[in-house]
Amino acid sequence: MCSTLQAKPLSFLLDRNEHKALNSKDRFKLTKAILDFLETHYKGMTLSFWSEPFENIDFEKRITNILHWVDLAIQEHQSIYPVDPLWVMSQIMAESLFCELAISPSLAAGICQFMPSTAVNPYQMTIAGSLPSHRKPPYVATDLANSLNDYRNLVKQRGQYQRDSRKDARYNLDDALQLLAEGKSAKAEAKAQLARNEKIKEMNMGIELARDNYISYIETNVATLGKNDIFGHSKFFIGFDERLTYRKPIFSMVHMLANALRVRNGNILTAAAAYNAGLKRTWTNETIYTNYGMLPGIEETARYVSRIVANYEEIALRYYA
């Protein structure tokens, strides 16, 4: 006998008309699903972002609080586009493993890993060093409070120098071989390129120092004044760097996802990629695919979206069981 397979299309397109709010029973069930997923895969391990053993972290307290704000944010932005709460939690897990004090080498911070520029504009978050009060007591390490501006200025200077000296970078092996074959010398060109490389190396060292100083400024104040505890010292965190809190970053993340879903016709994959790489990078002029967007050819973004998909599958298997 022949059997007919029942068609069940694989779809990453979210329904525009589906209401995504959770009731208390849903939130409890989703919290348990995430906790089970974490325990299954991370028990006995020292975790990235946290630099702590799994058993030392109160994940239940954190996930309960995060999910509360995720649910409110989804309801707030429902009119833009409904966002799946399981996807948001999967994405936060990929960003930070729910670590509110996570700071990346790129200076992204918090559970949603907001970059300083995005946090301030358009989402109007207070970030470390952005207020005059951050440069005087009771804040500490105030000599480092301007490090973010130093970092930005140095990056800008490096970019300008690279553009201005582009001609000095054109000398390559083929050019050298051609000149040697002709019995000519290109010492001046070689020296110019070596000098350019040395200058850029020096600039990179300055940029790295400014970046490390800014991270040190944040971490020193968080440890000294915030006691590394956003629950017990929430007033400090709100006044110092809101990226390290819950409400504003979560509302901002959900807003970004809802807007990307609206623009990309519900394609959650391109919406997630847009959060990592920027919405413009998910656009394509290929007629068939313009409505849904494309995943950009960026290795970091590919890894990022892959992690979210895996997180979502693991959480959904438990939640819908």
Produce the secondary structure layout.
Layout: H1 24-42, E1 46-47, E2 52-53, H2 59-76, H3 85-96, H4 116-120, H5 147-164, H6 173-181, H7 187-224, H8 234-240, H9 247-263, H10 268-277, H11 299-319
Helix pairs in contact: 1-2, 1-11, 2-9, 3-11, 5-7, 9-10, 10-11
Care to describe what's here?
The protein contains eleven helices and two strands; from the N terminus they run H-E-E-H-H-H-H-H-H-H-H-H-H. The protein is mostly helical. The protein has two domains: 24-127 and 241-319, Lysozyme, CATH 1.10.530.10; 142-218. A two-stranded antiparallel ribbon has the order 1-2. The longest helix has 38 residues, at 187-224. The two termini are 32 Å apart. Mean pLDDT is 93; it is low at 1-5.
The rounded distance between the terminal residues' Cα atoms is: 32 Å
Structural class by secondary-structure content: mainly alpha
Taken from the alpha-carbon principal axes, the silhouette is globular
Largest sheet: 2 strands, antiparallel
Q: Please report the first level of CATH classification, the CATH class of the largest domain.
A: Mainly Alpha
Number of extended strands: 2
CATH topology of the largest domain: Lysozyme
Taking Cα atoms only, what radius of gyration do you get, to the nearest Å? 24 Å
Per DSSP, the total helix count is: 11
β content, as a range? Answer: under 5%
Task: Supply the CATH architecture of the largest domain.
Answer: Orthogonal Bundle
Q: How helical, in percent, are the residues?
A: 40-55%
**Overall pLDDT confidence:** 93
Report the uncertain regions.
Answer: 1-5
- In spatial order, strands of the major sheet run 1-2
Can you tell me the number of structural domains?
2
Oligomer: single chain
